[in-house]
Write a structure and sequence with these properties.
mainly beta; 4-stranded antiparallel beta sheet
């Protein structure tokens, strides 16, 4: 299964069958409210989108695959679990009806579509797409034109949605927060607290109120910022270092944070990086819960199943060291790990 080296799966996690042929660029588990089974969706630079059924044991069955005309940048689920959305470098957003196995274009931009998220509000539902054309658009799937469009200060690099909040991170370190109640509107914009380009953002909930409370932002400089929407105390916002390796002569090798995900039950989080590791964190206790062993390629994406029992992480080359480090012998793959106990928070209040 893992001919290249022992470091391709040092923790003996379960390998997803029939993975993509190139680096995984997007990965999401099906929502809790939908089907009785778990499904995993992944998009790749090989232009494919794949869907697997995932058993509680971690065994996987490939269910469907679609090939796009350009690399896939993002994927997301419809809230009922019957459809998937695909953002592509072909400047389109598409919907994949999984039961009918049909793909239809539902969004268009003037440049690569970097993010796609389904917004489910009490009075409307729509697809949100962010693009390198410096716009954020909201689409009613029954209409050819967007129902709303916002100009972004720069190219969209990352986004997340947790109703009633959306957050978008762009080039030049801009962060824009949107309120989605009644209809989407800009709520706040500010400069990233991180000095370097951000790569990923993830909204976290107030676990008592079950409502979005803030977001975590990860940068290419091995650092994460925890930002509250309305901090009770200014010190509630903080940053921490991660994905750094001590090199020679007191120097540190610093790697990008490629993805962040919050555990749906515990509210703890995971970061994955170009150093080939993942780490589990408790932001409230400000402590690390676990560090993985180091894999021999970068970890590019991660996701938790809706019940919080399965952690998926995608392994492959992210070109962080340039073309001279590209090794076609090393394949991309996805690993699954039982994680519920490992992500329990340190604090008990």
């Amino acid at each position: 299964m893992f001919p290249q080296s022992n470091q391709s799966n040092p923790m003996k996690d379960i390998e997803v069958t029939a993975p993509p042929d190139d680096t995984i660029s997007a990965m999401k588990f099906s929502p809790a409210t939908s089907l009785p089974k778990n499904f995993l969706l992944a998009g790749s630079w090989d232009c494919s989108v794949r869907c697997w059924e995932v058993a509680d044991t971690g065994s996987t069955i490939p269910k469907a695959m679609k090939t796009m005309t350009a690399p896939v940048m993002d994927v997301s689920w419809h809230d009922d679990g019957t459809k998937a959305f695909i953002a592509g470098a072909d400047k389109t957003g598409r919907v994949w009806d999984l039961a009918a196995d049909q793909v239809m274009q539902v969004a268009a931009h003037d440049n690569t579509v970097k993010t796609c998220h389904w917004v489910k509000a009490p009075n409307y539902s729509c697809l949100m797409t962010g693009s390198w054309d410096k716009t954020l658009k909201f689409w009613d799937l029954r209409q050819p034109n967007p129902i709303l469009q916002f100009a972004l200060p720069e190219r969209c690099y990352t986004a997340d949605v947790e109703y009633p909040m959306a957050v978008v991170g762009t080039a030049n370190r801009h962060v824009i927060i949107y309120s989605l109640e009644n209809q989407p509107q800009e709520y706040k914009r500010h400069e990233s607290p991180l000095k370097y380009q951000h790569r990923c953002v993830s909204i976290f909930n107030d676990m008592k109120k079950k409502a979005p409370a803030g977001y975590a932002l990860g940068s290419i400089e091995g650092r994460v910022a925890i930002q509250y929407l309305n901090p009770v105390n200014p010190k509630d916002n903080f940053t921490f270092k991660c994905h750094r390796v001590n090199g020679t002569a007191n120097f540190q090798d610093i790697y990008a944070v490629n993805d962040i995900a919050f555990h749906p039950i515990h509210g703890t989080l995971v970061t994955v990086g170009s150093d080939g590791t993942f780490s589990f964190w408790d932001k409230d206790a400000r402590t690390k819960l676990k560090s993985s062993e180091t894999l021999d390629q970068s970890i590019t994406k991660c996701a938790f199943s809706a019940s919080g029992h399965i952690f998926a992480y995608a392994v492959g080359y992210d070109w962080s060291k340039g073309h001279e480090y590209y090794n076609p012998q090393k394949k991309s793959y996805i690993l699954l790990r039982s994680c519920f106990e490992e992500l329990k928070p340190r604090h008990t209040n």
